[in-house]
Write a structure and sequence with these properties.
By secondary structure, the chain is of the alpha/beta class. It has a five-stranded mixed beta sheet with strand order 4-3-7-9-8, sandwiched between helices.
Length: 514
Amino acid sequence: MLAVVSLSAVILWRAPHMEGANLLFRADALDYAVVANRLAALEPPTIPIGDREYPSRYPVGFPLLLVPAVEAGVPPHELWIVSALTAVLGVGLTYLAAARVTNRLLAWAAGLLAMAPVYIRFGVMVMSDAPAAALTAAWALSLFTRSWLAVGLIAGFACGVRLTGALLLVAGALGAIREKRCSRLVTGAALGLLPVVVCTGAGWSGPFAGYAYWVPGEFGTLVRPFGVAPLLANVAGYTAAFLGLAHRPAFYSFPVVLLALLGGFSQRVRRTTVALVVLAIGCHLGIVLPYFFYDLRLVLPIVPLVLILAALGLKSLWERLPLVAGALAACVIAFQWQVARHSLGTDPPTVRVGPALVTVASYLPHEALIISDVASPLVWLYWERGTARAFLPLSVPPAGSGGDVFLDRHLRRLYWNAAAGSGMSLPTTLLDQGGVTATGKAVVERHGRRGSPAIVVVCTKSGRRDLAGAHLPVRPLVPIGTTSPCDVFRLSVKSAIRGARGLAPRAPLRGSRA
């Protein structure tokens, strides 16, 4: 076990982790980091955006895993380390689960998981996919040891990490009913579901987390995110990935699927246990395939189960044809290593968001109005949290600038939803359609009367264009130069509104979907 866990740790350390350090993907990683910091401060798990707070898109399970790191002082751009640690733990749990049904020598399933390209990539990102896979491995281990309290606890908590964790709860419940251990499973599930129940009861989230709020067109009802059209569009990609048919497989190579099929008919483990594992895999695929959003990482949580079944199939083959089984296992591992090598290497040149924002923060007054084009959650994490500063978004980002790492996708999504008729409350911005908004003017004047300086920080091309087009009276605050990609200005509060081009009415977001 130590060898395979060490292998996983080395691979994840060598893997490029700039996506994790820059809190990509948006909005996932930003939501997780913000909610974790708010939970650590005993605050509601909401997302501050300007002068408003909004529900997070995602359940609170993964942010809860991040809370100990936040309490230990880990900055947001290093929270990917928590994902890496849980990914290493997932490899260890897969080893223990596979060894439980085979033996230690044939528990190569953990090695295959450690070298799976998608597992490596998301194991160094502030995303819930690798932790969800680790929880699935823990669920399988508990299932094999008939620990029904742990089965319920893990499945319940998995629901708070990814909503598809409910499938583990269903499969575990069927096993507990057959074994007449329902009370233990229900007790464990109640404890595991407690964070989700608390957040839902407090009104911070809903049955679909915050998806229904942020993406009302797809998550208005239970069945709306699913359909025949997505099924037809997704089936080819998911089938190729699940069967390992690609030139560089996302998870494993094709022989693993054949071994998993053989493991599904193995007599070495109780038929009920194997059936529950197969049921969990089938139900997960049944949810993912017709889902409107396509991404291979959605399959990642069930990969440990496939590999455990493959280990069971390899054990059965070993008992009949040991030479064939040994050669096949060696070839699969060798091929997996060749594929994994493409996941290692150096990060491409890119802006380091966290250090850049930390540099800017060192020049900002402790009490000030910060006007910026930087994503609102990033502003809260690096400039606003723990200070007397207030934040006013500069403007709504235009469509077509999605590649900027500082871009405020949260703000753009809110305005898109409002333009689509959602009727939600919108945060105040300083500029809209090239002019100063009435509400933005009021915010600036209010802080001016208090004597708080107004600091403008622009880090995106669109923000620089908007600032220049509005002709606001600003002067450079500090010559940050090459230490940051951002420009910092001081806004003359007394003449800011008088020197601007004039007031513009609030208007819906122009352009395409965020």
